[in-house]
Amino acid sequence: MSVTAALGFLASGVTAGIKESGDPDLALVVNRGPRRAAAGVFTSNRVQAAPVRWSRTVLADGRISAVVLNSGGANACTGPGGADDARTMAERTARALSVPVPDVAVCSTGLIGVRLPMDRVTAGIDTAAAALSPDGGEDAAVAIKTTDSVHKTAVAGGAGFTVGGMAKGAGMLAPGLATMLVVLTTDAVVESDLLDAVLRHAVRTTFDRVDSDGCMSTNDTVLLLASGASGVTPTASDLAAAVRTVCDDLARQLIGDAEGASKEIEVAVVGAASEADAVEVGRSIARNNLLKCALHGEDPNWGRVLSAIGTTSAAFDPDRLDVAMNGVWVCRDGAEGESREKVDLSDRRITITVDLRTGGSSAVVWTNDLTAEYVHENSAYSS
Amino acid sequence: MSVTAALGFLASGVTAGIKESGDPDLALVVNRGPRRAAAGVFTSNRVQAAPVRWSRTVLADGRISAVVLNSGGANACTGPGGADDARTMAERTARALSVPVPDVAVCSTGLIGVRLPMDRVTAGIDTAAAALSPDGGEDAAVAIKTTDSVHKTAVAGGAGFTVGGMAKGAGMLAPGLATMLVVLTTDAVVESDLLDAVLRHAVRTTFDRVDSDGCMSTNDTVLLLASGASGVTPTASDLAAAVRTVCDDLARQLIGDAEGASKEIEVAVVGAASEADAVEVGRSIARNNLLKCALHGEDPNWGRVLSAIGTTSAAFDPDRLDVAMNGVWVCRDGAEGESREKVDLSDRRITITVDLRTGGSSAVVWTNDLTAEYVHENSAYSS
User: Potential cystine with A179: which of A172, B192, B220, B373 (Cβ 3.0-4.6 Å)?
Assistant: First the structure.
């Protein structure tokens, strides 16, 4: 049910002709109210796409009535013309839906540096507006796919309210958000300030901990819209739990569908002096190409884990590091521990546990292996 | 001629049986004097191999008479036993050459986390000592290879003096030194303080600017030994020029032979507010897997260059960034510039130029493309 699982929302997904493939490439998500609170988190990349700049601006008042999304082009690094295009998308959507222009957020994904075919985009917006439906969540999720092999949706229920969501993203997955567009909806009655706090809290330990290939996008956007249509005002913690559940579900779907990946790797760092240390160590391991190749080859090469840890500024003693692969402590005190022969890396899911033995903090970072298929997909993407 | 191009040096390379392949795997470089000044630069990885710890200690007095090097095992993450092994290698070498133990540096390269077969190593040291020759530089360079497809040597002459060198390294190439062992020699008359300054200056803009795969080794070592055998005391600038020439030559050979690479990529960052900014931007581009895949596919995907720049803290305006690929300015003012159709990436060498248009500083970072062969070599390395 995706974004239309929550009451008060309509959605649609259509083929506007932006993609040469003829696959669906334009989606709308509309909040019919009665409330229109919204929150958003955007890429921390300093090179930001035009739709990100637009959406950040219109979201400043904590209110969004609709989101227009397209795949087939990122509208990033497109100059003043690209900024005009993002605004035009919002204006056309506002007109089609009879809502104020500053209440429309815009999301784009696809190749960087290419202008959108605006004739097709604007016509597509009208088509999508006509196709809006309380059952349109799946269609919307399909229309935002790029190299995703499957569309991604999730739903979580609270006491009398619902949180739904959709996501796209399969490459350029990295912190400060994976290259992804995510729209979350809820029918809970909630003010935008609380919505913002709940969303940031959820993103920090879900999407921000996904690091498939270390590459940070220009377009990452996570939006959360609240209609209040359930009439239920949940406690902050109930709402936070439901939002986090949906974010976590979608984040794992992103890792599960990452370009060319054959492994889903959980890097759990424990015994850290701080959560920041744990995250830094987890990310360093998640980004180590040599380790990611070894795990692809199902080789428990823990030396590459240690060499990655050694590049961080986290607090640890190199001679007191412990590392486990799928529960086998192959490294103890910074040297060989249990036999690597005991490690079975044949499953798709792999867990690497690092004990820094310095403090009580921990963090989990999710990543993928590095494969020839990843190279192939990303060397042929735009040519 | 490698390390024996300079007067006053002997070298050898033999098969000790550390490698299962039967290829040469143990080398000696001996400074016969009359002087024995030395300087060294080591990995900045906080997880440091036993031989790095040993060599750093014995080099503290600026004096080295011999270097013993092995391939086939890194002696890293090997605990107290590994530390004993490094010391034993120095002791055995000192005995064979009749020099003090604290005058022997040790270098190892190969798989992390595995103890060396010390019986073979010590016997190999005796064999290597017996094989020492003023023509042994090539043999030594061959014996330190791991996945290198060719051995790497370089020589530069100054006014009455010579600098020679050898290097190994083909994977795990990253800053704070590429996984590499480098031994440089000179017959110039020079004190260890100047030698240290000259070496650090040369390394900073050569080996430290090589970033093949973003992975920093536990074993990187660059040593420079001065025999004074020429009787010539060069000016500091003449010596610096010759040392930098040899370092630059060897660094480019490392990039030219990087594991699985099909492209040698020069990332030149100009117009930066500081050299540190230029290096940060260059490294970020050099480490972007998506871009490295695109270049492998000969796709001038400049959007990935911009997304990499955007992750840095360097001073720049996203709307004033210019990017050229092989001289074609495909990005102007942060948006599309000349047609990407004009870019020909079919040569092995590719130059990416980024103009931050902020200041007058610049830097060059060298990297490689990301290929299926890299994945293959590194997923099968230890299994």
Answer: A172
Ordered DSSP codes for B165-230: EEEE--SS--SSS-S-EEEEEE-S---HHHHHHHHHHHHHTTGGGB-SSSPPPS--EEEEEE--TT
Q: Please say whether the beta carbons of B114 and B82 come within 8 A.
A: no
Asked whether the beta carbons of residue A372 and residue B370 sit closer than 8 angstroms, the reply is no
- In chain B, what residues touch A114 (CB-CB under 8 Å)? 336
Chain segment B58-107, per-residue pLDDT in tens: 999 999 999 999 999 999 999 999 999 999 999 999 999 999 999 999 99
How far A133 CA lies from chain B's nearest CA (Å)? 36
What distances in angstroms separate CA B28 from CA A300, B129, B138, B149, B231, one per listed residue? 33, 7, 11, 21, 24
Bridge-partner residues for A337, per DSSP? none
| Percent of chain B that is helix, strand, coil (3-state, to 5) | 35, 25, 40
**Do residues B108 and B72 touch, judged by C-beta distance below 8 A?**
no
Q: What is the pLDDT of residue B113?
A: 87
Check if the beta carbon of residue B306 is closer than 8 Å to that of residue A47: yes
Say if the Cβ atoms of B112 and A216 lie within 8 Å.
no
In the residue annotation, B179 being an active-site residue is answered as yes
Whether the pLDDT of residue A216 is over 80: the answer is no
Q: Are A254 and A167 in contact (CB under 8 A)?
A: yes
Which of A109, A309, A378, A382 is the best substitution to test chain B (most B C-beta atoms within 10 A)? A378
- Please give the Cα distance from B246 to B321 (Å, whole number): 34
Rounded to the nearest 10°, the torsion over CA A43, A46, A49, A53 is: 80
Q: Model pTM greater than 0.95?
A: no
Instruction: Please report which residue ranges of A154-191 form alpha helices under DSSP H.
Output: none
Q: Are B9 and B35 in contact (CB under 8 A)?
A: no
Look up tokens 């008042």; give the residue: A61
Contact B380 A299 (CB under 8 A): yes
Instruction: Return the residue of B nearest to A290 by Cα.
Output: B378
Provide the ipTM: 0.80
- What's the CA gap between A353 and A366, in Å, rounded? 12
Q: Are A144 and A42 in contact (CB under 8 A)?
A: no
Asked whether the beta carbons of residue A303 and residue B216 sit closer than 8 angstroms, the reply is no
Q: Note the pLDDT tens digit of each residue in B327-357.
A: 999 999 999 999 999 999 999 999 999 999 9
C-alpha dihedral sign at B353, B356, B357, B361? negative
Let me know if A330 is exposed, middle or buried by CB neighbors in 10 A (0-12, 13-18, 19+): buried
Q: Which of A179, A206, A218, A371 is catalytic?
A: A179
Element (H, E) at A364: strand A361-368
Distance of residue A37 Cα from the nearest chain B Cα, in angstroms: 30
First to last CA, chain B: 35
pLDDT, greater one: B207 or B214: B207
Residue B154 near residue B253 (C-beta atoms within 8 A): yes
Q: Which residues of A touch B215 (CB under 8 A)?
A: 288-290, 304, 307-308
